[in-house]
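Lecture notes, unit on binding sites. The following record was shown on slide 14. It pairs a sequence with copper (II) ion.
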Amino acid sequence: MADGIGRGFLSVNHELPAPAIHVCKDDVIMVDLTNDAEGTATSIHWHGMRHILGTQYFDGTPYLTQCPIPYGNKFRYAFTADDEGTHFYHSHSGHQKANGIFGALVVRAPDNTNPNRHLYDYDLPEHIIIVSDWMHHLAEDDFPGIVSRSQLTQSILINGHGRFFNQTSKTYQLAPLTIYHVEPNKKYRFRFINSGFNVCPFLLQVEHHEMSIIATELSYVEPFTIDTLYSLTGERFDFVINANKTPGDYWIRPQTMLPCRIITEGFAVLRYGNKSGSSVEFVDKDPPRESKVFLKQKIFNSPKPKVKDIPFLKLNAYEYDDSIIKGEPDHKYYLFLDSPTFSDDALYSNKTHYRMSCKFIN
Ligand SMILES: [Cu+2]
């Protein structure tokens, strides 16, 4: 049910999100994929894997690095987990990622290679925050031809759970939420994955708690502390939360930001104590609406940075290749990127495409 509203979706092993994969650096990841989704072809992209040992044909881009896997067929992915870090995997075919095919992929390495290991007590497999936007229909319904600059996010899910907020009745749909358990006065490494499909950035906050960023994507970074994290789809950030507040429940809240006109929010709970409690639960109280209780004084990657904010350029890796940063390129290529808005006339005038549905005006 995801956000309390029923819909059909695509899944891996009947799970949303897809099962998390945890491995050690240099392990071989072998995944046998059977496409049971009638009428589809599929492929999986292992986001963050560089395939440096020559396994680029497992990168999952259909028609580029592999033929898509037709319905009823099997395909084996096999590659080495070369890069430590928080990664994820998702379908790279059609709109299947928006329809539910995404999951975490975590590669761990020995503590003695981690310059930030002393900053936390625990790095638990259940402390993954995989955030995705969600609609109440299959993403294909909006094509061919989008009626707006983007598809409309209706909910945000954290590890596949959220509560739909009805903008008309101003009520939440009752649905269970993800619970993250922590012990008082311990420090925890959380692994945040932005698995959104829309163009809107997510803004992440944890009620009354700061986040110390210690790693992003493939690299550890010199740690810095923020209370608000902006991120775009595909990005991953690892941060430490110090559970040093009064024991209780605290909201973890991602929001969509501009250019999405309607702000959509997702919720999970950071819960002190009760270590063996369930990781998914109905929570009695309603989440706060655009609450003022969340700190917003130290924002990472804010589009309009203020004095205390941390811009992306302040992020310092422990190791980097000076020759790449300061080197002179042999060639420069300028790519022009835009999100053009097509009128109905432009899309349908040649009578070879017909609109299937038109549900939302963003
Ligand atoms: Cu990706």
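Take-home: Confidence is low (pLDDT under 50) at residues 357-362.
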